[in-house]
Every structure is written in C-alpha cells, then in structure tokens.
Write a structure and sequence with these properties.
alpha/beta; Aspartate Aminotransferase, domain 2; Aspartate Aminotransferase, domain 1; seven-stranded mixed sheet; binds pyridoxal-5'-phosphate
Length: 368
C-alpha cells in the first residue's frame, strides 16, 4: 500500500550506486586533489563524448554556466539578450549580471518553449543574442531560431539546464548554438551532490575564453588577460557525477516509462497533458495544465500526500526585480497563462507502479 509519493526522492537513486559513490569519494580523498585535475578532465571528456560536443567545460553551476557563456561572447553593457519569460530565474538573471539587458519574449502554448514569432516581435537594434531554454527536458524550436540568428548576426546561447542528453533532429541539446549551458543541480536529470554545471561549444576560441574566464581570466598562473570569476567544478562533484553518467540513459528510459503510464492513466481526465513537439524529450519535469483549477488540484494532492510543484508561479517579466525593464502585465499572455495553469507531477526514475497508480487515482478523485 502506498500512502504518499514525493515529487522527488534522490535517496533511492543514490542507494542503487552507493558502493561506487563511496569508492569515488575515497579516490578523491586519497588523491588530495580537490581543484580541477584528472577527475574534472575525465568528466569533461565523457560529457563531450556523450553529447557529441567538441568542448565540454565543467563549471560550478548552471547559473555560472550561463554567465560564463555570455562573458565568453563578450556580451555586456549596451547589449540586449532575448530570453523566454517562462523559465527559471537564472536565464534572465545572468543577462543582468553580465551587464546586458534581458528582453522578454513569449513562449509557445504547446511545449512552453520560446516562440520564434514573439522573438521577432521583441527584437531590437541592440539585440546581440537569443537564449532559448529547453524547458522541462524538451528542445525548443531551434531551426527557426537559428535561422533568425543567422540572418541578424545574433549569438545563440542554449539554456539546456533541464535537457542534458535531450536530442533535436539527431543532435544533442546544447550543441546547436554557439554555447550550451547545463546544470547538475540535484533535481536535474543528471544530479550532482551539490552545485555543478557544464558549458559546451564547437568553437575553439570560445572554449579557450571560457576556460580562462573560469579561473579569473588567468593563463598562465597569476597572469590575467581578462576579468573572469571562480566558476570551477569541484573534483569531488566530477568524480561523483562520473558514477551516474553511464546510468543516465537508464534513468531517462525510466522517466519515459513513467510518462507513458501517466498518458494512459490521465487520458480521460480534464487536464492537458504535455505536448511533444520534439520527439526525444528527457522529461526533467512532467507538467500538466489544469485551467482554472490548478491551485485547488495542488491543494487536493497535498492532502493525498502527493508531492507537486509549480514551475513557475510568476513569469519573469512580472518579477519585482525586473519591474523597470519588463513589459506590462498582459503583454506576454502565454507565459502568464502557463504560470497560472501548470503543475508538475512526480516523474523521477525510481517511482514504482503502485506510486504512479496512487498519483493517478488521487487526481481522478479530485475530478469525481
Ligand atoms: C536549474 C536551472 C538553471 C540554473 O542551474 P543551477 O545549477 O541551479 O545554477 C538555469 N536555467 C534553468 C532553465 C534551470 O532549470
């Protein structure tokens, strides 16, 4: 009998590879090498291979990956960067931290990703880059966005924080634009034991700049070409992530199995199931729409001990901190509607069938 289902339970995944995690920890402990070094280099190589990327650069978080990418491109004061208004805060926050201005565009109602027509509408003379987010594990409509960027000489920075190993027309998310940014925050599909991230690029010069900026713009030691930061990935995180990396495909398969279950079990209920616009999503989140009743359903599921979350309850252009640069309420209607209608259900790989059944039954009871 199942009486509660968490939104995410990391303990199960870690239990299943505990001996290897301990061995990785012991290896780093014995080496005494905690900053950069062979674990980070091996992890970078393994990521590059898995993603089919020329360069993979381990960094301190997904947020720092985005900031580093903008810094590597030289984006700063006087530049505009187009971002979707429906995303995690870091997508827009990093633009401000780079000294540039985020320009908010709307998302598509189907997959919640950047709407190319809205991008065309909000573009300005100062636009230097566009930052598509591959939200919830599904790729954005990259073809029209890449074409628009080519025509207008914009850089493309992909926020692939939620889409490590998702594919778009045969290529990995994050390898389509100038730079791809990933997060290994514990709730992402490949989760670290703390903060961690990655930047990818096909461009040798950008990779050089990114590697230098990661260590205060330094090369060689104590000679600084530019002002960077401390954006390094810990050797310990790299060693632990290397245990999980070969298991990622299995985790993704399990997430897909859970989604197949929900699709059948929820088919006859008055909720909108996620639309698959790109065929190989990795389901970082399974997000349904519940028009008019989202908060009530969430409250009901809380009583039924089912963990849910709203990603995200307030569109970025409505955030207090962007008050002075963002367009008024009503201007990006799909982002605003999504923030009122969406609800994420548990979809983590280790969910059991009785747990999935419990979630589906609890939702069915709400609509009875
Ligand atoms: C998680 C996330 C980030 C930030 O990653 P951190 O590793 O938490 O800094 C950025 N963008 C999106 C879309 C995310 O989901």
């Amino acid at each position: 009998m199942v009486d509660q289902v968490p939104l995410l339970d990391l303990k199960r995944q870690n239990k299943a590879c505990e001996a290897e995690l301990r061995a990785a920890f012991e290896r780093v402990l014995a080496s005494g090498h905690f900053i950069m070094g062979p674990e980070v280099e091996s992890f970078e190589k393994e990521c590059a291979q898995l993603l089919g990327a020329k360069h993979a650069i381990g960094v301190s978080s997904g947020t720092d990956a985005l900031l580093l990418a903008l810094m590597a491109l030289g984006i700063g004061p006087g530049d505009d960067v187009i971002v979707p208004s429906y995303s995690f805060f870091a997508t827009a926050g990093c633009v401000v931290r780079a000294g540039a201005r985020p320009v908010f565009a709307d998302v598509l109602p189907c997959c919640f990703n950047l709407d190319p027509r809205s991008v065309a509408r909000v573009a300005t003379k100062k636009t230097k880059a566009v930052m598509p987010v591959h939200l919830f594990g599904q790729c954005a409509q990259m073809e029209p966005l890449l074409e628009m960027a080519r025509e207008r000489d914009w850089r493309v920075v992909e926020d692939a924080a939620q889409s490590f190993s998702a594919r778009y027309k045969g290529r990995s998310a994050g390898t389509l634009g100038e730079l791809g940014c990933f997060s290994f925050f514990p709730s992402k599909n490949l989760g670290a034991f703390g903060d961690a991230g990655l930047v990818t690029t096909e461009d040798d010069a950008l990779a050089d700049r990114a590697r230098m900026l990661r260590v205060h713009g330094m090369k060689p030691k104590y000679y600084h070409h530019m002002v960077g930061g401390n954006f390094r990935l810990d050797a310990l995180q790299a060693a632990l992530l290397r245990v999980k990396l070969p298991r990622l495909a299995g985790y993704t398969e399990a997430r897909r199995r859970n989604v197949r279950f929900y699709r059948e079990a929820l088919a006859s209920l008055p909720v909108t199931l996620p639309t698959i616009c790109e065929p190989e999503p990795i389901w970082n989140q399974f997000v349904i729409r519940v028009p008019g009743k989202r908060d009530q359903l969430m409250e009901h599921l809380k009583k039924e001990q089912v963990g849910t979350e709203v990603y995200y309850p307030l569109a970025l252009h409505r955030q207090k901190c962007f008050e002075e640069i963002a367009p008024e309420e009503g201007s990006l209607p799909e982002s605003e509607r999504a923030s009122k209608e969406t609800l994420a259900l548990p979809v983590f790989p280790e969910l059991t069938t009785p747990e999935l059944e419990h979630v589906a039954k609890a939702i069915a009871r709400f609509f009875r």
